[in-house]
Specification:
Strands 3, 5, 6, 9, 10, 17 and 18 form a 7-stranded mixed beta sheet that branches. This protein has a 6-stranded parallel beta sheet with strand order 13-12-11-14-15-16, with helices on both faces. A 3-stranded antiparallel beta sheet has the order 2-1-4, with no helix packed on it. The protein has about 425 residues and is an alpha/beta fold. Helix 6 packs across helix 7 and helix 9 runs parallel beside helix 10. Strand 1 and strand 2 form a beta hairpin. It is built from 13 helices and 18 strands. About 45% of the residues are buried. The protein binds zinc ion (2 copies). One zinc ion binds next to helix 3.
């Protein structure tokens, strides 16, 4: 009977299809399980390895620390007088951390201090020296719960009091009682309790310590940039190709601004381009800088934002002259004590120019900076152009004084 045959064929076909369907489901479930098992194993493996590394590091570094009574440290005695001396290893008081310095970075501020022999707010000699660092905790004082030996941290160079007028109005950078810490150019550094509580950050495993040490200057750069009323597509002129000028221009480029870098030295031209400057004006002439920068804007009207990152009066004046009507100027570079500038008041008033001057950083900016470094978008590696041992610190500063092409040198104790 044809009907029976057809039925039989239909039935067997549906049986086969069901079998295939089941088979496929079974295989897919197996693959799914297999994948989950492998991923789990990888995850556990990674966690095990990382915790082993963390334990190993804690054990080794802590053992070294406890076995030592003295350490090598840079002591600033005055103008161009840094000595590497043997000093007692610090021990943690309640609330404090002792950090084994993994990398300490040279900074324009340190160079200024080296030249002048002091810094009114930050350091009075004789004193331990250096303030941009990241390292490994070797001792946590009584009451510290956030960090244990073995933790990789960046300890900022300052912390606000939290209860003065300025702290209460979100201007922690202007705190009446800003506490500064120095001593990064050493094997170990004491981190005061207030900095432990407010401005010490855990460094993600994938971030090298020398990159994490950029948190402090980058926090100043992000602060200065955000204070300049930026918006995507704005034309931003950055005057100065030093470490902070380059950092600000990189931050501005990452934020979608069109950056014009104004630099003096050959080495800075390449660095500015690599870090995202759309245009580079290389000159040491004030007039040429103003003219060439304006020429890069429609009808020579001037840039939307000009950020001065040199710290000399001529550059402050230059910044005011290259901004458009309604634009913003940020006097980011601090000049020597007692410096005065002459500005064209008519230009500022009738062109409705906003003048800003950003100083230092806040705890929120420090967190933003480390996040930016950890994101991988920020080219941290480009800012560290040399490595040197603590013993070579004098030579490193002498080289920096002679305007070498180094951006930052990582001092490894
Ligand atoms: Zn610095
Ligand atoms: Zn305060």
């Amino acid at each position: 009977m044809p009907g029976t045959v057809k039925d039989a064929i239909k039935r067997s076909r549906s049986t086969v299809e069901t079998a295939i369907e089941h088979g496929r489901a079974t295989v897919e479930t197996a693959i799914e399980h297999g994948r989950a098992t492998v991923e789990d194993a990888l995850h556990h493996g990674r966690a095990t390895v990382e915790s082993a590394i963390q334990h190993g590091r804690a054990t080794v570094e802590t053992a070294i620390y406890h076995g030592r009574a003295t350490m090598q440290a840079a002591v600033l005695h005055g103008r161009e007088d840094i000595r590497i001396e043997s000093v007692p290893v610090p021990r943690a008081e309640p609330g404090e951390l002792i950090v084994r310095v993994g990398a300490a970075l040279t900074c324009g501020t340190d160079l200024k201090v080296f030249r002048r022999g002091y810094h009114a707010r930050m350091i009075v000699p004789p004193a331990l020296f250096g303030h941009e660092l990241a390292g490994t905790v070797v001792e946590a004082g009584k009451g510290v719960t956030d960090f244990a030996p073995g933790a990789r941290v960046v300890a900022l160079n300052s912390a606000p009091c939290g209860h003065c007028y300025f702290c209460e109005h979100s201007h922690e950078n202007l705190c009446d009682d800003l506490l500064f810490n120095n001593g990064a150019y050493a094997e170990f550094i004491r981190v005061p309790a207030r900095i432990v509580a407010k401005n010490t950050l855990q460094v993600p495993e994938h971030v090298p310590l020398e990159h994490a040490a950029l948190t402090e200057p980058l926090a100043c750069a992000v602060h200065g940039f955000e204070d300049s009323r930026p918006y995507p597509g704005a034309t931003v002129a950055v005057i100065g190709g030093g470490p902070l000028g380059l950092m600000i221009l990189h931050v501005a480029a990452l934020a979608g601004c069109e950056v014009i870098a104004i630099v003096k030295h050959d080495g800075q031209v390449e660095a500015a381009r690599q870090l995202g400057a759309a245009h580079v004006v290389q000159t040491s002439s004030l007039r040429k800088a103003i003219r060439d920068t304006r020429a890069l804007t429609p009808k020579d009207r001037g840039v939307d934002i000009a950020i001065e990152a040199v710290g000399v009066p001529e550059a402050w004046q230059e910044a005011v002259e290259m901004v458009r009507k309604g634009g913003t100027v940020n006097f980011f570079g601090g000049c020597a004590v007692g410096t005065h500038v002459t500005l064209d008041t008519n230009r500022i008033h009738y062109n409705d120019i906003t003048l800003r001057a950003t100083f230092h950083h806040t705890p929120a900016m420090c967190r933003k900076a480390l996040d930016l470094i950890a994101s991988g978008k920020f080219q941290a590696g480009a800012f560290i152009t040399g490595h040197a041992h603590l013993y070579e610190l004098n030579r490193v500063f002498e080289k920096l004084m002679n305007r070498s092409s180094e951006i930052k040198t990582a001092i490894v104790p």
